[in-house]
Design a protein that fits this description.
Helices cover about 25% and strands about 30% of the residues. It is globular, with a radius of gyration of 15 Å. The protein is of the alpha/beta class. It has a single domain (about 5-190), classed as 3-Layer(aba) Sandwich (Rossmann fold), CATH 3.40.50. Strand 1, helix 1 (about 15-20) and strand 2 (about 25-30) form a beta-alpha-beta unit. The chain is built from 5 helices and 12 strands. The strands form 3 sheets. A 7-stranded mixed β-sheet has the order 2-1-3-4-12-11-10.
Amino acid sequence: RPRVGILALQGDVREHARVFAELDADVRLVRRPEDLSLIDGLVLPGGESSVIDKLARAFGMREPIREAIAGGLPVYGTCAGMILLADRLENPIAGQQTFGGLDATVRRNAFGGQVESFEVALEVPVLGAPPVHAAFIRAPVVVDCGAGVEPLAALADGRVVAVRQGAILATAFHPEVSGETRFHALFLRTLRAR
Ligand code: GLN
């Protein structure tokens, strides 16, 4: 069974844990640098990216996570997690840093605040039918991708909301809150392939 670590500093850790448990993965919560050596892949949950960034630095997790991602550890980031994976942020809050690894520019809160949250049926060709029921909650978008980044899904207006780059997967929305398991299953296939 693939060992999936979920960065458990802040955010929707429990929702991810539930989906991976349902898919029969071995779920581990990651809070200390040494936890990173016990996992085959890492999830960066949704939440508040600037808070997760601050806590990661306070707990001495920032550099170990950066190095693990740069060293090829598969990572899946949802929403705040996508922000934390971005090499570049269009609108960081003061002093905000990311782990990086994803050669893309991401815009935080691209749709406005909490009241502008919405759900859509999103076509995701790599997952096939039916469309993904995607919940966008103060969600980011990918405004610019490097050559090695593959867009996996876009909104009707063309804005990219899911990407893959090697073993890095990122979605601007939260499949883990809407009963959707196919992105998590796709991530597990990446782990098993290694
Ligand atoms: N807007 C949040 C941020 O900047 C992300 C929101 C979410 O993860 N649902 O981190």
